[in-house]
Specification:
Elements: E1 2-8, E2 14-20, E3 26-31, H1 42-50, E4 53-56, H2 62-66, E5 73-76, H3 88-100, E6 104-109, H4 119-128, E7 132-136, H5 141-149, E8 161-166, H6 180-185, E9 189-194, H7 200-209, E10 217-222, E11 230-235, H8 239-245, E12 252-256, H9 263-266, E13 278-281, H10 289-297, E14 301-303, E15 309-312, H11 316-324, E16 330-334, H12 337-349, E17 360-364, H13 367-374, H14 389-399, E18 406-412, H15 418-425, E19 429-439, H16 445-453, E20 458-461, H17 464-473, H18 476-483, E21 487-490, H19 493-501, E22 508-509, H20 515-528
The protein binds S-adenosyl-L-homocysteine (SAH).
Length: 533
C-alpha cells in the first residue's frame, strides 16, 4: 500500500512524493544536468532537499551538494585524487544498503542518468533486490552543448536526424563497437559524440574513409553549460589536431554536421561581465544562495565551497528565562542574520508565534540583519550608524535608559562581548542567548580535486572567519598553489586585516561593506582590469 503525500518544496512548488506506509526505502535515479546548476529539474531539486541520503558523481554541479542541509548524508562515488571511482558493484551495494535502512536515497548522476550513464544497470540491480525506485531524467550533455554553443542540431535545412554516439571503447574491447562506416554514409544528419577525446584520432579516419566529407563542419564543446565552457569550431579532418592544439580535456562533446555553420548567427553564450571567471565563495552555503545566483547571472563559475558553517545551538537556560519574562519594554539585540534565523526557528519550534515579541523593542547591527528581520515582518527600533559591535555598544547605551530592563542578546558562540559588557554597565539585565555555533567544515577530497584541476581566479571573503576557515581547509602548500595567484576580494577593513595577517595580498576591498556592493565593485574592477578567464 502506498499513500501520496504532498510536501511543500523550498520553492513552493508542490511535489508528490510517493511514500510507502511502512516507510521502506526508495531510490531515485536522478539526473543533475550538465553543469549549470540552474539546469537541474525541479523534480530532482525538490527530491534533493527532502531526501535522507545522496550518492553523487564527479560531474555534479557543486552547488547542488554544498547547499544541502547538514543532516542529509552525502556519499561521493566519483574519482578521488585522480584515482579510480568507486566500482559499480560498490555503488550498487551502497544504494541497496541505504534503501534497506528505509532511507529515501537520491542517486545523483551527471546530466541524464540513462544516457551513457549506468543508471540502467543500477535500476536493474535495485529491481532484482526488491527495492522501490524511480528514474528522473536530466538534461543530457549533447543537448546542453547544442544549446550553449548555439548549434541547432536538427536545423531543418541541414539535418533530419541526430545521433548520440559514444566514442569510448569499452575497456574489455580492442576496437569500438560503433559502426562508424554506417554512420559515415548517413546524409543530412548530425552526429554527437560523447566520451570522444581520447579516441577522436581513430574515429575521424574511419568516418572519412567510409564517405563522410573531410570538410564537414565540426565543433568541440568543452565543459558545456559551465561558464568556463569553450567552443572550438573546426572541420572533420582537423578534429584530432584541434584536440591536441587546444589541449582539450574531458568532459567534451563533438558535434559533426552542417548544422555547426549556423552557430555564426546564434552564438549567445559568453557575453557577460564576469564570463568564465572562477570565483570561490567562502561564505556559509546556507547564506550564500543569492550570491551564487548573482555571480552566475553575471557569467561567473561559482565555486560554492564554504570555509565556515553554522549549526543550531539550543540555549535552554536562556529560553527558560525568556519564557518567564512578563514585564514590557524589554530589548532584543540581533547582530547577524544567523542570530535572527536561528532565534525565530527556535521560537517557532516551541510553538510560539511572532506575537510573543510584541512587548520587545529590537536593536540590530547592519542592513543584512535588518533584511533578515523584515522576512518576518519585524522592523528594528534601533540601528547604530556604523555596522560594528563597538558602535552598537556605545550608541545603544547612550540613547536608551536600560536600567532594570531585560536585554536579550542573541548571539553565536564566537560573538564578541563588548555589547554585553556595555549593557551590564548601563544597569540592564543582560540575558545572553547563544542560538548558533560557528564551525570549520572539512573539505572532502573531491573539492580539493576540483580546485586542483581548475583553480579559482577570484576568492571572496565576507568576514575574517571565512579567511581563517580557508586556512583550516587547505594546507600551506595548497594555499600557495591554488589561492595565492588568485585575486582576493574583501568586504571591508577588518576582513582585509585578517587576510594580510596570513601573508596574502588584498586586490580589492569593497568601499561599501555589503555583499551587493562588493559584487558591483568587483564588476567595475574587472571592466577596467580584465583577468584572463
Ligand atoms: N549521462 C551523461 C553522460 C555521461 S558519459 C549525459 O547524459 O550527458 C560522460 C561524457 O558525457 C563525457 O565524456 C562527455 O562527453 C559528456 N559530458 C558530460 N557532461 C558534459 C559537459 N558539461 N560538457 C561536455 N560534455 C559533457
Amino acid at each position: 500500500m502506498t499513500r501520496m503525500s504532498m510536501k511543500k518544496s523550498p520553492n513552493n512548488i508542490d511535489v508528490q512524493l510517493i511514500m510507502n506506509d511502512k516507510k521502506t526505502g526508495i531510490a531515485y535515479l536522478a539526473g543533475a544536468g550538465p553543469g549549470d546548476p540552474g539546469l537541474v529539474t525541479v523534480k530532482t531539486y525538490n527530491l534533493l532537499k527532502q531526501c535522507d541520503a545522496v550518492v553523487y558523481d564527479y560531474l555534479i554541479p557543486d552547488e547542488l551538494i554544498t547547499t544541502l542541509p547538514e543532516n542529509i548524508e552525502k556519499y561521493y562515488v566519483g574519482k578521488i585524487g585522480g584515482g579510480n571511482s568507486s566500482s559499480q558493484t560498490e555503488i550498487n551495494e551502497l544504494l541497496l544498503s541505504l534503501a534497506r535502512e528505509n532511507k529515501t536515497v537520491v542517486r545523483l548522476k551527471g546530466s541524464d542518468p540513462l544516457v551513457f550513464g549506468r543508471g540502467g544497470e543500477e535500476a536493474k540491480y535495485l529491481a532484482q533486490n526488491g527495492i522501490n525506485f524511480e528514474i528522473v531524467p536530466g538534461v543530457t550533455a549533447g543537448v546542453s552543448a547544442s544549446a550553449y554553443a548555439g548549434i541547432p542540431i536538427t536545423d531543418r535545412n541541414h539535418a533530419s536526424w541526430v545521433m548520440f554516439v559514444t566514442g569510448h571503447k569499452a575497456k574489455e574491447k580492442l576496437v569500438s563497437s560503433v559502426k562508424w562506416d554506417w554512420i559515415a554514409r548517413g546524409e543530412k544528419g548530425t552526429v554527437v559524440i560523447y566520451m570522444g577525446v581520447s579516441q577522436i584520432a581513430n574515429i575521424v579516419p574511419d568516418l572519412i574513409e567510409n564517405g563522410m566529407k573531410d570538410d564537414t563542419p565540426a565543433a568541440i564543446i568543452e565543459r558545456a553549460s559551465f561558464p568556463t565552457q569553450k567552443t572550438h569550431i573546426s572541420i572533420l579532418k582537423d578534429l584530432p589536431q584541434t584536440v591536441i592544439d587546444k589541449k582539450i580535456k574531458a568532459p567534451a562533446i563533438f558535434i559533426i554536421g552542417d548544422v555547426v555553420n549556423s552557430r555564426e548567427y546564434i552564438n549567445w553564450f559568453g557575453k557577460k561581465p564576469l564570463h568564465g571567471l572562477r570565483i570561490l565563495v567562502t561564505r556559509p552555503a546556507d547564506q550564500a544562495e543569492m550570491i551564487y545566483l548573482k555571480l552566475r547571472n553575471l557569467g561567473a563559475e561559482v565555486l560554492p565551497y564554504p570555509t565556515i558553517a553554522t549549526r543550531e545551538n539550543l540555549d535552554r537556560e536562556a529560553w527558560s528565562v525568556f519564557n518567564k519574562i512578563d514585564i514590557s519594554n524589554n530589548w532584543l539585540i540581533f547582530t547577524s542574520e544567523n542570530g535572527v534565523r536561528y532565534f525565530i526557528k527556535q521560537m517557532k519550534d516551541q510553538g510560539k508565534d511572532i506575537r510573543s515579541l510584541s512587548d520587545y523593542k529590537i536593536a540590530v547591527i547592519g542592513e543584512g540583519t535588518k533584511r533578515a528581520l523584515a522576512k518576518y515582518y519585524l522592523k528594528p527600533d534601533f540601528i547604530p550608524d556604523k555596522a560594528t559591535t563597538s558602535s552598537m555598544a556605545e550608541q545603544f547605551i547612550k540613547e536608551f535608559d536600560l536600567k532594570g530592563l531585560n536585554v536579550i542578546r542573541v548571539r553565536g558562540n564566537l560573538s564578541v562581548t563588548n555589547i554585553d559588557e556595555a549593557v551590564i554597565k548601563a544597569g540592564g539585565n543582560l540575558i545572553p542567548m547563544t542560538v548558533y555555533e560557528t564551525y570549520y567544515p572539512v573539505w572532502g577530497d573531491e573539492l580539493k580535486e576540483k580546485i586542483k584541476s581548475y583553480p579559482p581566479d577570484i576568492v571572496t571573503f565576507t568576514s575574517g572567519s571565512t579567511v581563517d576557515g580557508l586556512f583550516n581547509c587547505l594546507d600551506s602548500n595548497e594555499i600557495n598553489r591554488y589561492i595565492k595567484q588568485a585575486m582576493l576580494v574583501s568586504i571591508g577593513p577588518s576582513t582585509s586585516e585578517v587576510i594580510k595577517s596570513h601573508g596574502l595580498n588584498v586586490t580589492l576591498e569593497a568601499k561599501k561593506h555589503t555583499i551587493p556592493d562588493l559584487i558591483n565593485e568587483l564588476v567595475e574592477y574587472i571592466k577596467s582590469n580584465p583577468l584572463e578567464g
